[in-house]
Write a structure and sequence with these properties.
The complex is a heterodimer of chains A (349) and B (345). Chain A has 349 residues and is mainly alpha-helical. Helix content of chain A is 77%, strand content 0%. The longest helix of chain A is centred in the last third of the chain and has 31 residues. Chain A is globular and about 50 Å long. Chain A starts with a helix and ends with a helix. With 345 residues, chain B is α/β, with parallel strands linked by helices. Chain B folds into 2 domains: 99 residues, Rossmann fold (3-Layer(aba) Sandwich); 153 residues, Response regulator (Rossmann fold, 3-Layer(aba) Sandwich). Helix content of chain B is 43%, strand content 18%. Chain B contains 10 helices and 12 strands. A 6-stranded parallel β-sheet of chain B has the order 2-1-3-4-5-11, sandwiched between helices. A 6-stranded mixed β-sheet of chain B has the order 7-6-8-9-10-12, sandwiched between helices. In chain B, helix 5 runs antiparallel to helix 10. The longest helix of chain B has 20 residues. Classes of the chains: A mainly alpha (349), B alpha/beta (345). Chains A and B meet through helix 1, helix 2, helix 3, helix 10 and helix 12 of A and helix 1, strand 2 and helix 3 of B.
Chain lengths: 349, 345
């Protein structure tokens, strides 16, 4: 088989997969009585239609996915299966609100760093319990991090109904954080806040760390094979696992802090629609490359923002939109796998 | 690694180009026709709170010929986005159906002074941000009187979603209604922490039934199906048990178990709001109740006779007293005093 033919096959697969998925989505929409052209046009316009749509909607929605996606990518890189970004995000959001509300008169340059540091610390703290159980007792972190999510969700519910409830005592939400604690706008005139830039900077820092430093090399070595890393005698795996847990938890916690300080300005039940879980898809699609997470988080943010427009402009109900979103994600994953195969064959041939 | 990165970018580019190909003309362009939008935080298939709002939106579209659109939002972070999108697309009247839209509506109200934002069970009022207070507690009180007159065990139950003032208020009134006809009745209350978790609602209802309750009312959205199912199963087990509907006339949702509903006529209120808005006379807050027929206790005609005639006449008397202002139904007032009452310059 010639190189050309071998290279062509995955490309055809990719195109076929994408077209087939879009056709299925279009057929489903048509069956439901929603013109597919209008629906897809609305999806695209909602996400990319204007500069403001892209910045204020897509990038704002991408921000928590970017941070939690980075948290998951870093942990997975070290073979730490942190399924707990959702809980760490909630812990971070709660800590951020508690600190910001407790500092009503403080200027922004003090209260914003304090808020975000508290969020990161709370996320790391939340991740430290599964870390201790894994390194100390060998308890699998898939279960422990997952269960810690529920603890965090119920803790958030308890706190907004009780100790952190707004001083007016009417609704199950915290007080609004003082204006000085609001993250400044990144692009004037849009809703995009500093949190997106923080996400980009962390992505670059993580990429440099993983590819350019001995610590990053050790982390990847442990991720590749913890036993081999130990046997080689150069270093112990446990501190690396701890580092991965804590750093991952801190970044996920920061996601919660950034969301509260940048968008919602208070905490309530149901802050996150499951960003910590979507983050796993974001990270895997980026193949755990921090720089690629920026791209995949924006793709997921665009799908989410476009889904809103699909409801508004094409009248497609929410459950349909979520189904279509899932199909498009499947299509992108399939296409991506095919490209990957293409790239690896190409480099070998 | 670099190859992979490029592959990913190519994937994204391919996805975008196909999406772009599907992109036609912008239908949201202003056609000059008044446009009304609705945001709900749950599915409009709940046969209750959200279904009523959706019917209201359709009524506005059908009877006034306005352009209408609906979006279900998942998280409060999406509220701002939805308000802004609709305001930018030329929608002049935007309903946020639930107290949770208040903050976002107030923010959007400042950004778009020419757009009117209506918040159901809202708490803050300004020139273009209008709360609607439904006064459902008045109908809930009458439902409580009916419940107190049919319970045989002397125990009735209430299953709520999230403990918010508008929901809590209907329960306080329901309990008062029960005790008005049966002073030593036991009234159980459970909030399940969710509006649409059907199985949690069913569990909570079943627990109340086990504790001896034989009449249940709910204030949840899509989760109400769980309450009705629990009552249905108790009846299949040979017990006498009844449910009451809430927020919308739900008598036909589970006609076998629903004895009556404390209903808001949301479509009519929405239609009136749209008419006032077009006439330029909409200024908040809009407070409705039994007066004007905005809320009502509706016995289920399928079970005529179960509520004793004597009880029905007492309910009618109570309704007349409420309308006459001689009977104060306990309520929770969550409307904030209007800010900045100073005359505008």
């Amino acid at each position: 088989m010639s190189t050309r033919t071998r290279a062509l096959t995955p490309a055809l697969t990719a195109a076929a997969a994408l077209l087939a998925t879009l056709a299925v989505a279009a057929a489903l929409l048509a069956l439901g009585g929603y013109p597919p052209g209008d629906a897809f046009a609305a999806l695209f316009r909602g996400a990319f239609g204007t500069w403001d749509r892209f910045v204020s909607f897509t990038l704002v929605r991408a921000t928590p996915l970017l941070l939690t996606g980075l948290a998951v990518a870093l942990a997975f890189k070290a073979r730490v299966w942190n399924i707990g970004a959702e809980g760490q995000l909630h812990a971070g959001a709660l800590a951020a609100v508690a600190v910001a509300v407790a500092l009503p008169g403080a200027p922004g340059f003090l209260v914003i760093p304090a808020t975000l540091l508290a969020a990161a610390a709370a996320g790391a703290l939340w991740a430290s319990a599964p870390a201790a159980m894994k390194t100390g007792m060998g308890v699998g972190e898939v279960i422990t991090t997952l269960l810690m999510n529920f603890v965090a969700l119920f803790m958030a519910q308890f706190l907004v109904q009780g100790p952190l409830r707004e001083s007016r005592g009417v609704f199950n939400q915290t007080d609004e954080i003082p204006p000085a604690a609001h993250l400044p706008d990144l692009v004037p005139g849009t809703r995009l806040h500093l949190g997106f830039l923080i996400g980009i900077l962390i992505a670059i820092a993580l990429w440099l760390y993983l590819t350019r430093t001995p610590g990053g090399f050790r982390l990847r070595a442990v991720g590749a094979s913890p036993q081999a890393a130990e046997v080689s005698g150069r270093f112990r795996a446990q501190p690396v696992v701890w580092l991965a847990f804590l750093a991952s938890g801190a970044i996920a916690g920061l996601a919660g802090g950034v969301q509260v300080a940048g968008v919602t300005h208070r905490m309530y039940e149901g802050l996150s629609p499951g960003w910590g879980y979507t983050a796993i898809a974001v990270a895997l699609l980026a193949r755990l490359n921090p720089l690629a997470v920026v791209v995949t988080a924006i793709v997921f943010g665009a799908l989410s923002a476009g889904g809103g427009a699909m409801q508004r402009d094409a009248g497609v109900p929410e459950v349909w939109v979520r189904g279509i979103e899932a199909l498009v994600i499947l299509a992108v994953l399939t296409v991506d796998r095919s490209w990957q195969a293409l790239a690896s064959r190409g480099s070998r041939g | 690694m670099m190859d992979r990165g490029r592959g990913l970018l190519r994937t994204a580019a391919l996805f975008l180009s196909i999406a772009a190909a599907a992109c036609g003309a912008d239908p949201a362009a202003d056609s000059g026709q008044p446009a009304v939008a609705l945001l709900t935080a749950g599915p409009v298939s709940d046969a209750g709170w959200y279904a009523g709002a959706y019917e209201g939106l359709q009524l506005i579209g059908d009877s006034l010929g306005f352009r209408v659109s609906h979006q279900q939002t998942r998280t409060p972070a999406e509220f701002d986005e939805a308000f802004i999108s609709y305001a930018e697309s030329g929608y002049g009247l935007i309903f946020g159906h639930g107290f949770e839209y208040q903050d976002a509506a107030s923010r959007a109200g400042e950004m778009y002074p020419d757009v009117t934002f209506v918040v159901s069970s809202g708490s803050r009022s300004s020139a273009n941000v209008v709360p609607i207070i439904f006064g459902l507690h008045e109908a809930s009180y009458l439902a409580g009187m009916a419940a107190g007159s049919v319970t045989q065990s002397g125990t009735v139950g209430m299953v709520g979603g999230v403990e918010i003032p508008s929901a809590k208020g209907t329960f306080i009134a329901f309990e008062a209604g029960v005790k008005a006809v049966m002073p030593d009745a036991v009234v159980l209350e459970t909030f399940i922490g969710s509006w649409d978790d059907v199985s949690a609602a069913k569990e909570a209802a079943a627990a109340q039934l086990r504790q001896g309750a034989d009449v249940l009312i709910h204030n949840v959205d899509a989760a109400s199906f769980g309450v009705f199912q629990a009552v249905r199963e108790a009846r299949e087990g040979g017990r006498t048990a009844w449910a009451f509907g809430m927020n919308r006339d739900q008598n036909d949702v589970a006609p076998d178990v629903i004895l009556g509903s404390a209903a808001i006529n949301i479509p009519t209120i929405f239609l009136q709001t749209a008419l006032d808005w077009r006439a330029g006379t909409l200024s908040g807050p809009t407070i409705t109740g039994l007066a004007g027929g905005s809320v009502e206790f509706v016995p289920n005609p399928a079970h005529e006779g179960v509520i004793p005639a004597q009880a029905l006449s007492r309910i009618d008397e109570a309704r007349a007293s409420i309308l006459a202002g001689t009977l104060d139904v306990p309520a929770i007032d969550f409307l904030e005093p209007a800010a900045g009452e100073s005359p505008s310059s």
